[in-house]
Each structure stands twice: as C-alpha cells, then as structure tokens.
Amino acid sequence: MAAAILCTGLLHNEAGGEPVTPASPERSQHLVSSKTLAPSIRPGLVEFRIGNKWQSGLHLIESQDESLVIGRDGWLHTISRTEKSESMRSVTGKFLPTTSVELRNQLRAEFGREFEVIATQNFLVVQPRGRGSRWPKMFEQCHRSFVNYMERRGVKVREGRFPMVAVVLPDARAMYDEIARLGIDVSRVAGLYANKCNRVMTHDGGALSSIAATVRHEAAHQSAFNCGVHSRVNDTPSWVTEGIGQMFEPTAMSSGRSGTRLVERVNKDSVRQLRETIDMDDPAEVARWVDRMIRSDDLFRNPTTIHTAYALAWSMMFYLAERDTDAFADILNFTATRPPFETYRSGQRMIDFERVVGSDVRDFSNRLTRFVADLPAK
Length: 378
What we know:
single chain; Glutaredoxin; 5-stranded mixed sheet; 14 helices; DUF1570 domain-containing protein; DUF1570
C-alpha cells in the first residue's frame, strides 16, 4: 500500500507498493480553514512574497485569517491576514503558468549537478545522473494509461496547466531528507504524492519491483489531481481518492492497455487483505464496513483498520469501474466539482452516495460481496 496524499492543492478548474505501513490521508489539513472561508472570489493576478522573494500567481481563496495563492509553478502558498498588506498586492495582466523550459531550469538549479532533469510529454523527471530512461518511461506510461482508463469510462479528463514533476532520489535516506525539507511529516513510505507542490517523490535505492506498485499508486494521484478527476481543495472522501490509487497498483494498469483482461487489473493484495479481515461471506458485515467507509475517513486514520480501508476502498471503486461505469464516472465527476473547503458531513456523504449509485448501502454491499467473491487472490 502507498503513502497518503499529503498537503492540499488548488481548485481543479484553475490548475489546469512497497509493503509498508501507509500514513493516514491528511487532505483535511486544509491550507485555508473551511470554518472561516469567505464568499468565493474571482481568481485574480497578484504578486506575493515568500521569504525575501516576490513572485506572481493567482489569488484563489480568501478566508478571515489567510489567503490561498498559487504560484506560476503550481505550488500553493498561504498569506496570513496580518502579512497580507506587506506580502501580497494585486496586479494587472494574465496568469501564465511556468513553461516546461523554465521549470526544467529551476529544477536543475534546485537539485544540482548530481541530478538530471528528463522531459517527457507530460513530465519533468528529476533523477540521479546516469539512470537512463526507465523512470521517465514509467511515469509517462502511468499517466497515459490513467487518462485512457478514465476516458473510456466517461470520466471528465482535462489537460493540466502545470508540468508534472516526479523526483527520484538515490536512496531512501535522501528521499526522507527531501520530504523533511518540504516540511512533510511522514515515515516508512516508498514514495508519496504531495499536491501542495504537485510532485511525486520516490527513491532508486532498491529493486524497482519492490517500489513499483507504490510509484504507480502515487502517480495515479498526481494524474487525478492534474487532470481534474479530483479537486485539490475540496473534501473528497478518502475511499474515492485512495480507491483510485489502489486501482493503478497492478502492473497491467500501466501497460499501455490498462490490462486487457479483468484478472490482470485486479489488485490481489487488496483481495487478500479483505478476505483476511472481513467475513466476505457475510453481506451484513460487509455493509457495516461500507457504511462506515462512506460516512467518514476514520478507517484510514486508525492503525488497526488502515490496511483494510485501502483494500475496501479499492474494491468499491474497482467494482464501480468494472460493473457500473456510469456510477463510477458520476462519483468522480460529482466529487471533483464540490465547493472548495466545504466540510463534507457524514449524512450528506451518504445521501450523495446513494443518489449517484442508485441504491442503498445494503444493496450495494450485496453486489460488492458477490463481485469480490469471484476475484482471484493469487
């Protein structure tokens, strides 16, 4: 299982593994508090100061305490109310995201001569010199497979406005140092996607096979947030975001054909986890787990249930993707367009789920139980 999505990102319409213990999803740690959110503003061009450096960006959201701004490079920043008069000013002009050439030069300066920056159609991949084309090809293929899979199922996919960045560090220690440099608190991961800076990070210190599933999981998060499949500032349920990540862990899901047979698309680790922790012959027990999953993200925050939460999230999204594509597309299209920073309360989550899926939890769980029963675990 992979690391959680960390940090928050931007409004989707403005933005253009290794067997480890995953961190719990932290999308609730918004950059701007939902309790103090002011009425929506029309995004406007601003100049803002971070440290001693001024840069241009878009002012996205205003609250009583702070403002959320996105820079030309896709990074998100908060400007507190007390600093706003001295650190942010409105300007005229058009917002122009950083070009691939500009960002490539910035990455070269940021990581130094021991690294190279390889450009693909959709990525800038930072990696230690001499690693060849293995990583760039992997990230590019993951993204193309993701887009193909989503479009074939009616999910709205758009082209992102910012170049996607993937950073491959030479070993695990270097990766943790880089994660710490960015102010991210996480441990025991093979990789992660931090959507505050819109980067996937992993390391090249072990066999590729041991971390490939995590990389595919995190690359799916990055593709989802850059293509508008998820919004990067609203409260999307973890079973939706992490279910998608789990779906793309199998090798076949990044093969270019997204797996020609259903058996190739099955996350067998998730199937085994479900059968070990939930009585899948008891639809009532499955329904209790599904009900709890829909109503809140608590299962992802509890160390005793987190692995089962990832597996159950996978099964729910995989079932919809394979057996009810209309509901699969509707779930993603609906959650991607919810208002930014609006708390998604338990009751409303359930109402929306039953409306979109077209059945209650008991009926859905019965169908899910029969579907999982026929899936291979080996």
